[in-house]
Amino acid sequence: MTTSMLLVLLTCLVSTCTSFSPAFSSSPRTSSVSLAAISRRDVLQSATAFSLATVASTINPNTAMAAKSPPTAEELARIKTGYKNLSYLLDNFEKETTICKENGGECKRDADAVRKYLGLRSTQDPLFQIEKVFEKVKYMDLDPDQLEPFFEATEEWNTAQNMSNSMAFISQFGEYNPGGGKEEVLKYLEESKKQVIIAKDALEKIIKALDL
Asked: How far apart are alpha carbons 137 and 147 in whole angstroms?
């Protein structure tokens, strides 16, 4: 059925249902009329929603298929790039989490870089919403023996990413919180680093499971 035909059908359905809406009165039949009106309204809403969904899928038939497609080569490459970036962060952690004012000014530790490397700061980061790529893996022709290790690794990644993000966020404001100071900043920054290590190891397991 074409899109134009579906739109015509929807228009007819709406006009037909609304044309039969009864007038309410104070007669004894008010209750039964109300129930009939409600019933017709429910039918109209359900039919309208179904018709709109059908029209949408007809207009863009590739949408449903795209959601069930395996990850592209570019998407899988993001996992490897993200892993390499996390490795670099850990190898240069103090440098990447230190910000100095211009012209030799004061330097301070800042955990914002951790969140960036984890894909939490920009849509351009390789690991930005990488869980959506993981979700597509179930449509790959994956070795059955690697399914359990893969899903376990994705759970480890999700937990470590969330924990590291939380610790990094607390660290950024540790100096200004009551009872806080530079020691608190370093404390939570170190906790964030521990979670980055777990996140990197999880990506390594995922890369192995997917044979990337």
From this structure: 10
